[in-house]
Amino acid sequence: MTVKPNNLEKLPEDLDRNRLPKHVAVIMDGNGRWAKRRGLPRIMGHRRGVDALKDLLRCCKDWGIPALTAYAFSTENWGRPLEEVDFLMTLFERVLRRELEEMVQENVQIKFVGNLKALPPSLRVEIERSMTQTQDNNAIRFTVATNYGGREEILQACRALATQVQQGILQPDEIDEGLFASYLYTSGAQDPDLLIRTSGEMRISNFLLWQLAYAEFYISETLWPDFDRAEFHRALEAYQQRDRRFGKV
User: Fold this and answer.
1) Which residues form the catalytic set?
2) Rounded to the nearest 5°, which phi and psi values hold at 26?
3) Which 8-state DSSP code applies to residue 12?
4) Its pTM surpasses 0.90
5) β strands within the chain, DSSP E
6) What would the pLDDT profile of 118-165 be if each residue is shown by its tens digit?
7) For residue 3, which of 77, 103, 157, 178 sits 20 to 30 Å off, Cα-Cα?
């Protein structure tokens, strides 16, 4: 998790520590465009994107934000060129293998959510190893959504609950929001307070459809590889200016 030195290592004085989000979710958009603008292959944008994510994770830990969820690979991303998909799978595996020891030392708890069974076997081994070795860590919960789709997540929860009803284990009127949420991939995690999407795109792209019900959205024009602590600072400033009423007056 080693990153370049940054002059925003401590929480900026203009941010209220008591009003920080407890859980930040991020859609990391713009890796390909970042590379294209520099005449580089798209894979170089993904490599730089990993560095940006590592710095954001460290920043959340430094500033006292206890949970970060990153949208790494969607169920729709399988439709990208095979060469790019293969590179991403290999990149995920290499990063996990390379960074795990430091993640353990930094007390980071790693979680992966999504349909992990469809991932390459060697990557699944690294995922399982990372989650097992960090399961007792508590400095920050780092969740990586991989082969994740919000609609698929909701459907699999519905199927599981329907099976329970069919078997007579559960009555339909016993199903409430809390029970439903316990059947999602993110069971046990607090819903995000803040969603950040980079590159100026204004859509959630099938990400955490249930969990983002009351999250504040922040759209950054910055492409993901250039999203640094100064940009994150601006996102948190905007968040702290919001009046979060949750439907109430």
Assistant:
1) 29, 77
2) -140, 135
3) P
4) yes
5) 23-27, 67-74, 108-113, 140-148, 194-197, 216-219
6) 999 999 999 999 999 999 999 999 999 999 999 999 999 999 999 999
7) 77
